[in-house]
Amino acid sequence: MDRRMTTPWHLWVVGVVTLLWNAIGAADFVFSNLRSPFWFEAMQYPPEGISYLDAFPFWARMAWGMGTIGAFLGSLLLLFRSRLAVIAFALSLVGILLTTIYEAGAVMPPELEAMQPAWFPILLWSVAVFLLIYSWSLRRKGVLR
Question: Nearest-CA neighbor of 125 among 89, 90, 93?
Fold first, then answer.
């Protein structure tokens, strides 16, 4: 019995919306690590915020990249209906977890704390967990190949 399904309409909605959402995080990671003056100005990073990012240890920087780039690739793979989207979203969650652990022990400058609303980490985790469950469900149903 062939369990493959046609592509449900919601895959395209979830895929495109999360690709845009995850592109912001991936761009932030890439341009922040390239130390792009344009990016820092556009995002209104204060000098203390740039110093905070520069202080990230290697492992935390790589976790940040795994979280953001993994999510972006996961959304792309979802749109391509690839079962590898599940792995990309799982790796993204590991990256988010490690970044959260680092940030819990780091002292964030007040200027950066004011830029990030208290509800943002909840939204970030909610979207990431949703994407893992959603992609896993589509894979189980045979939508992702």
Answer: 93
